[in-house]
Amino acid sequence: MITTDLKTLQESWRKNLDALPATPDKIPAFFFGHGSPLLAMPPSSSGGDTRAWAGSGGPLSAFLKEFGPALLNKYQPKGIVVFSAHWDTSGERLGPRPRAMTDYGDENPLLMDYYGFQPELYQLKFKSKGDSALSKRVVELYKQAGQLARLSPKTESRGRDGRGFQGPGLDHGVFVPFAIMFGESFTSIPVVQVSIDASLSPEANWRLGKAVAALRDEGILVIAGGLTVHNLGDFASFAPTSASPAHREFDRAIVAAVEVADATQRKEAMVQLTKHHGFRAAHPREDHFIPLYVAAGAGEGGDVKVVADIYGCETIAFGL
């Protein structure tokens, strides 16, 4: 059953956040709903169910405001390595290109990789820093796992910016939710973004997460962002009150799969999600779904907990 009442959702996620073990020597890996630029738009009575659910007045925004401080208090991370649905490299379709990770030094630029939004969404702020030592450590781990990897400096464009130029930077799947989670100025610990595997293969991206699992023992928070329902051709799919039965059934299937107790059976159930009858309705392209497997790979071998069961944007802890 999908819960839509904000008070009920809050009570549930607060209980789950409190129950997360405080293990700074082995930080869980997380998949989280990174939302969209709608999270940064002022609450409005217009926009229908999607704006009410996915916007700044909705449950995801409310959760992220509590999620960020909980992560910092529970784990005191020395750094954050983040994967986003909005950056992919390598993979079978593109050939053997290296994994890329930001190496931006004292301040991470922002890549506002969205188009046609209100002017104020191109004035968003999120001040953070990188760390070359952490970026190089991630490269080292990928090479140890037999994968190509390289640094991506500020001089290298990551793609098109909605402000009208090509540029580097953390994409909106990172800076929009992180600004809510950690505040517009967050310079106490470094943030490094890593690309996902463009093959969009569950197995390939599981291996991607597994390769950096050692970071969890080194005080680094590994977190992967996406959405469990993401169909830009069907905006009704983003809210449970307007989504089709296929969308809602797929959302419930995800929760059921990650809650399988046996680790081997859980992985099989998760991989089989791409064959669910509602999968393509929820994900015409699976880029927003695949980060789930990165987090699962990074947290392989431990227990799993759905921290926030918010339709379309669940947050799940792996490796408890």
TrEMBL record:
InterPro entries xrefs: Extradiol_dOase_DODA, Xdiol_dOase_suB
Chain segments annotated as transmembrane: none
One matching Pfam family: LigB
Occurrences of domain Extradiol ring-cleavage dioxygenase class III enzyme subunit B (ranges): 58-316
Statement: the UniProt record of this protein carries the keyword Zinc: yes
Names of required cofactors: Zn(2+)
One Gene Ontology MF term: zinc ion binding
UniProt key word Transferase: no
Gene3D superfamilies, per database record: LigB-like
Domain of life assignment: Eukaryota
Family: Belongs to the DODA-type extradiol aromatic ring-opening dioxygenase family.
Name assigned to this protein: Extradiol ring-cleavage dioxygenase, class III enzyme, subunit B
Organism: Mycena pura
